[in-house]
TrEMBL record:
Cross-referenced InterPro entries: MAB_1171c-like
Protein name, per record: MAB_1171c family putative transporter
UniProt keyword RNA-binding present: no
Species classification: Bacteria, Bacillati, Actinomycetota, Actinomycetes, Kitasatosporales
Region described as Disordered: 340-360, 370-389
Keywords noted in UniProt: Membrane, Transmembrane, Transmembrane helix
Transmembrane segments: 6-25, 37-58, 70-90, 102-120, 140-161, 173-194, 214-237
Protein's organism: Streptomyces hintoniae
Length: 389
């Protein structure tokens, strides 16, 4: 009776709305975003109005017993209209606006029907949690209940089928989003079905009130949570994936930075490590330090050694990218060891072209991760095989 499920569900839905608000402010004329935000806002409103304490407040303030019921049913119906409009924009194609307007007009008629049935009916006894079954046989009130439940069931069923059908045609984060939305709307369908079952049972003289007071709120709460998760997955998922890739790249570059550590420290080429930084910032910091070290060692890179190692690695692996990484790893390790002692003269023996790109740096670091100490037999071949792993 304290409405905890309603408050939590409303809060979750409105948090999802808050997450979408910046995008809506930037693209306020985007019908797709407006539909998503309408779904979240109206579903949250329906949960809030359906909380027993709020029901009591509305009824006491208005002086009309059970006035909260048609208000709640109207918000649920408006949510159904928003869900249908969202599906229309998802599908796209010609006549999107006309189709959306027809759905809105149809559900507006349902709302008017709910108001008319409540005005014509008589519900003098306040029921905060089981109005659907208590008044299931009362003229006009029963029609009002069936009307809103059928409207809600139609909206959730169409949304569920459309989401799951579209999920088979896409992949990645969008697929995960649609599958989650499909399961969420399945739970919402359980809300309508359980209440309709309880109403039909009441018509036959049975009492299945627990379907209304226990099962349907739980189904609606689960549906609200999954709906929000499904909507925010495309927003949060790619960001999490980017953070994970940056974190992995940062870790993979560690062997190359360690190889250059002496140069970076001795020549003060390493920038101060940023504090409380994101994985992407840390990755840029490490890449910058590595490029500083490679830029300093440029005069010490041995072109004949590079060509020799690359040719050997290419014979062993038949992989040009791996051969390049192996040759770079050997040349860098040699230059670090010999940097204080010699500088190669400018000319054909200097490595041409730009420094290694980020993907090449990762392959070089992978090769260095298992590189044997300089001078050991088959060092070059070991580098080649390491790069393959």
């Amino acid at each position: 009776m304290n409405g905890l499920i309603n408050y939590v569900s409303c809060g979750v839905l409105w948090l999802g709305l808050l997450a979408k608000a910046p995008a809506l402010l930037r693209h306020r004329h985007d019908p797709y975003l407006r539909s998503i935000c309408a779904v979240l806002a109206l579903a949250g409103l329906a949960f809030l109005l359906g909380a027993p304490p709020v029901i009591a407040y509305v009824n006491d303030t208005s002086g009309v017993p059970n006035l909260a019921a048609p208000l709640t049913y109207a918000s649920i119906t408006a949510y159904g209209a928003a869900a249908q409009v969202l599906i229309v924009h998802w599908r796209g194609g010609p006549g999107v606006r006309a189709t959306a307007r027809r759905w809105i007009a149809a559900y507006a008629c349902v709302v008017l029907g709910i108001a008319a049935m409540f005005a014509l009916g008589d519900a003098p006894v306040e029921r905060r949690t089981d109005l659907d079954t208590y008044y299931a046989t009362t003229p006009f009130i029963a029609e009002m209940i069936v009307l809103y439940l059928c409207g809600h069931l139609a909206a959730t069923a169409v949304t569920m089928v459309s989401s799951l059908r579209w999920a088979r045609r896409v992949d990645g984060w969008l697929r995960a989003s649609l599958l989650t939305l499909g399961v969420g709307t399945l739970c919402n369908t359980g809300y309508s079905v359980s209440r309709l079952a309880a109403v039909v049972a009441r018509w036959s003289g049975a009492d299945w009130s627990e379907l209304v007071t226990v099962v349907s709120p739980a189904a609606a709460g689960a549906g609200a949570l999954l709906t929000v998760v499904g909507i925010v997955i495309p927003l949060i998922g790619p960001r999490l994936a980017d953070r994970r890739r940056a974190r992995r790249a940062y870790a993979r570059l560690a062997p190359l930075e360690r190889e250059l550590d002496g140069i970076l420290t001795r020549r003060a080429l390493r920038l101060p490590r940023p504090r409380c930084a994101s994985p992407a910032t840390l990755l840029i910091w490490r890449q910058t330090s590595i490029h500083n070290g490679l830029g300093h060692l440029d005069a010490h890179f041995d072109r004949p050694l590079y060509d020799r190692v690359r040719a050997e690695a290419l014979r062993e692996t038949a992989d040009p990218e791996l051969a390049d990484a192996t040759a770079w790893a050997t040349v860098i390790a040699t230059a670090v060891r010999e940097e204080p002692d010699r500088v190669l003269p400018a000319g054909p023996d200097r490595l041409p072209g730009p420094p290694p790109d980020p993907s090449t740096l990762l392959r070089i670091a992978d090769a260095l991760a298992v590189r044997p100490p300089p001078g050991t037999p088959r060092a070059h071949g070991t580098l080649s095989r390491a790069g393959q792993g």
